[in-house]
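Reviewer 2 asked us to include a model.

Predict the structure of this chain.
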Amino acid sequence: MARKRQPGRNITGILLLDKAIGITSNTALQQVKRLYQAKKAGHTGSLDPLASGLLPLCLGEATKLSSFLLDSDKEYEGTCQFGSKTTTGDAEGEVIETCPVPALNREMLQELCTAFTGEIEQIPPMHSAIKKNGQPLYKLAHQGIEIEREPREVTIHELTILDIQETAFQFHLRCSKGTYVRTLVEDIGERLGCVAHLSSLRRTAVGPFRLEDAVTEPALLDIAAEGGMSALDALLIPMDQALEKWPAVRLTENSTYYVQQGQPVQVAKAPSTGWVRLFASNDRFLGVGQILDDGRVAPKRLINLR
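Predicted model (structure tokens):
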């Protein structure tokens, strides 16, 4: 007789994982999900296998907020390697073009960084998860097929130089969602009259979360071995912290009842526009809402921790 599969724990919170190089974000997610024996889990925007760094993982009801973290600004530290272009735009691909690299200096590189700061357009790479007629572009790329892609507007909030080598430079980047760092590096190379690829990448921030607060998978395994589930659970961050910059709206007991029925309510001193975090009168996080044109607070995504 087949053994009945356990349904998993109804554990809720956000784990800040420092993903290692060489594994996919989904592999990292599944490893953490098994370790926590979580019933439900999701990540907040994938990191390529080449990249390491901050990967917030949402467990349980926190998965309802993962899309908001996906929309958050991100920060990275990376290396732009001039002189060679690859099939994928990063160090995983095969070199398809080389060229001499002009002498690099801080003034030249600073001009390049300034030129790519602000709102810019990017053409997404073929090696990406964007779909065309239901098919991810990377699957077409693996078949040697290249199709025309529409440019997308992204925002580079900050692009600064960390270090300069003979044919490369390290940078710090703060950017909007949807930014392809590989494409940015290739475009920088083209502006220099050269070719380039992304040789290293580490994500250091996602929305309000920072890499220095993250934990590696080996450390997670040690914590699990020494302290068990309770020690693992202590690492989880309350999910409302993902939206800490949103205004908090505290409801009366009566308003809480109607909001949990999906109905908009009038709240004194609520913001006049935008998204808000919703709390019951006992400070229990209820979910997120949006201010309607008439000033009422409408529930949009509610949390069920019962």
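The chain has a mean pLDDT of 90. Residues 14 and 58 are 5 Å apart (CA to CA). We have added this to the supplementary material.
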